[in-house]
Amino acid sequence: MAIKRIHSGSPYEPKIGYCRATVTDGWVFVSGSTGADPVTRTMPQDVREQCRNTLDVIGRALAEAGASFSDVVRVNYVLPDRADFELCWPILAEVFGDNPPAAMMIVAGLIDAEMKIEIEVTARLPGTQG
């Protein structure tokens, strides 16, 4: 069983020893992703901007794997401040809309104090049976 590894260029990937996503046996596992601007690598102060950036990073990883947000079956959210989660709901509803995955939200600290949200997803490649 071959494993495809997808890298995003995040400076944390080589420091910690992980990749943005792995694809194997019809599944796509996207690592926890945070909200730095994908071009400038700066961290917005607003949780909504971080949420949008995070989803952009995840969306690119899913596309490289051959999937999209409609293929996501599980999502985990981690936020240091539970009050920030509700601010993200409209964005998340827009992205997952008609194809909502199973979900869980955890309140916990993140690797950098500037980070306000981390999102991890699991998707099933289209046309995969099992």
From TrEMBL:
What SUPFAM superfamilies does the entry give? YjgF-like
Q: Which InterPro entries match?
A: RutC-like_sf, YjgF/YER057c/UK114
**What protein does this entry describe?**
Enamine deaminase RidA, house cleaning of reactive enamine intermediates, YjgF/YER057c/UK114 family
